[in-house]
Design brief:
Layout lengths: L2 H13 L2 E4 L7 H12 L9 H4 L2 H14 L3 H14 L9 E4 L3 E5 L24 E7 L10 E2 L2 H14 L3 H11 L1 E2 L6 E6 L4 E2 L9 E10 L13 E2 L17 E5 L11 H14 L4 E6 L8 H8 L4 E4 L9 H14 L2 E4 L4 E3 L2 H11 L14
Parallel strand pairs: 11-12, 11-13, 13-14
Antiparallel strand pairs: 1-7, 2-9, 2-10, 3-9, 4-7, 4-9, 5-6, 5-8, 14-15
Helix pairs in contact: 2-4, 6-7, 9-10
Length: 379
């Protein structure tokens, strides 16, 4: 079966607005979320009553705090086990990667008053490749106006096609979506499974209590990732490096930016440096200089030169900012190994120090494809 045919068949069987019942005692996601929230806001005693003790601004702080906590080893191990138990039979036992950081959704009563309503959209609207599958998991009761509203797959295709062809206003788009949408009604212990071409969004929460949910995604091997890069947005199961610390005291590091791949050629220098700086701050890396590549030199001679200078390490924006030429890319990676220069890839929170690291990097670079065929609404 062709890959595109397999993808559509798999979605229709397992991810077309399906419900998953999971073992809540074994995977106590609501309990984990409440304990994590109480680290920062001990006054929160119940998820459903967050709005009674926190301001809308504090709710935003809460969301960011919990989302960052999703990079902790305890959550990653919990979700690794969850996915290992429930995903394989729903993806025909394909290999997968797991979203590195979950997204916490907190919908307080009358949330539109504070401008917090999630507009209707598809995952592909925001760079999610169609090789991605989503587990939307409420941590409180989700019903009626406080839940997510979904649109059937065939109607999602039709609406998207008309929206793009006729260039609707956002108000008209929202109106048409709402007419076709229906609310998912779930309890803790259940997840909603959907694909990246399923339209969904929120309306105003009139139920009088807060709805909390977390969504996590997996990327299937060989499938489309679009802007959600393997190793960055998604990680290998068991890869918990984000929760580790290293001692780079006294090490000589430099940083390197370039525009020499399909991924990096449109990323402005300040944005590359911001990603690199965040990585260096996280791992307490002190560097002596900012270096860069000639954007027309796709074989990356400057990077080769800096490796031959033998600093202790070089921090790059991403492994995907290496040249698209696989043979040349391997030459540079092997040169770094042979000279003992560590290459650090900020977006993926990983590094090249050993042959095992090299295999991991190759695995991520070859795991999927940026694009695969037309979107379903394209004629």
């Amino acid at each position: 079966m062709e890959s595109t045919e397999w993808m559509l068949d798999n979605v229709g069987k397992y991810w077309d607005n399906m419900t998953l019942n999971y073992d809540l005692k074994k995977y106590d996601l609501p309990g984990w979320a409440l304990r994590t929230i109480q680290e920062k806001f001990p006054q929160v005693a119940q998820l459903e009553k967050i709005h009674e003790v926190l301001t809308p601004t504090q709710v935003v702080e809460l969301q960011l705090y919990v989302q960052n906590a999703c990079s902790r080893k305890d959550f990653m191990e919990l979700f690794d086990a969850f996915v290992a138990e429930y995903a394989p039979p729903r993806i025909d036992n394909k290999r997968y990667m797991i979203q590195r950081q979950g997204t916490l959704r907190v919908v307080i009563p009358n949330q539109t008053k504070s401008g917090r309503r999630l507009q209707f959209h598809q995952g592909v609207f925001v760079g999610n490749g169609r090789g991605i599958r989503t587990f939307w998991t409420p941590l409180t009761k989700a019903e009626k106006t406080n839940s997510v509203f979904f649109i059937d797959w065939d109607k999602s295709r039709d609406i998207t096609q008309r929206f793009l062809k006729e260039k609707w206003s956002l108000d008209k788009f929202e109106e048409v979506c709402l007419e076709a949408a229906w609310p998912v009604e779930l309890l803790p212990g259940q997840s909603h499974l959907f694909w990246q071409e399923h339209m969904h969004g929120n309306i105003n929460n009139d139920e009088g209590y807060t709805r909390v949910a977390i969504d996590m995604r997996i990327l299937l091997e060989g499938e489309e990732y679009d802007r959600r890069l393997p190793g960055g947005f998604v990680r290998m199961p068991g890869d918990h490096i984000a929760d580790q610390s290293f001692d780079y005291t006294g090490k000589h590091f430099i940083t390197y930016a370039g525009w020499n791949s399909q991924y990096s050629k449109h990323i402005p220098l300040p944005m590359q440096r911001a990603v690199i700086n965040e990585y260096c701050e996280k791992y307490k890396i002190k560097y002596s200089s900012y270096e860069f590549e000639n954007e027309h030199a796709d074989w990356q001679p400057a990077l080769e030169h800096f490796i031959q200078k033998k600093p202790d390490g070089i921090v790059l924006t991403s492994m995907f900012s290496l040249t698209d030429d696989a043979d040349r890319r391997d030459e540079l990676l092997h040169l770094a190994l042979e000279t003992g220069v560590e290459l650090h890839f900020a977006n993926e929170l990983c590094f090249l120090k050993t042959k095992e690291d090299l295999e991991k990097i190759r695995y991520c670079l070859n795991f999927g494809v940026p694009k695969k065929g037309k979107q379903s609404w394209e004629e």
